[in-house]
Amino acid sequence: MRGHGFLLANYVPGNSLVHRTPLAVKFLLVMGCGLASFLIIDWLVSAAVFAVMCGLYLLTGAGPHRLFGAVRPLLAVLLVIGLFQWWQLGGPTAARIVLNILVCVVAASLLTATTPMQRLLDGVVSLATPLRRFGADPERFALTIGVMLRSIPYIAGAFADVRDSARARGLERNPRALVLPVFITTVAYARQTGEALAARGLGEAED
Question: What is the tens place of the pLDDT at every residue in 90-99?
Answer without folding.
Answer: 999 999 999 9
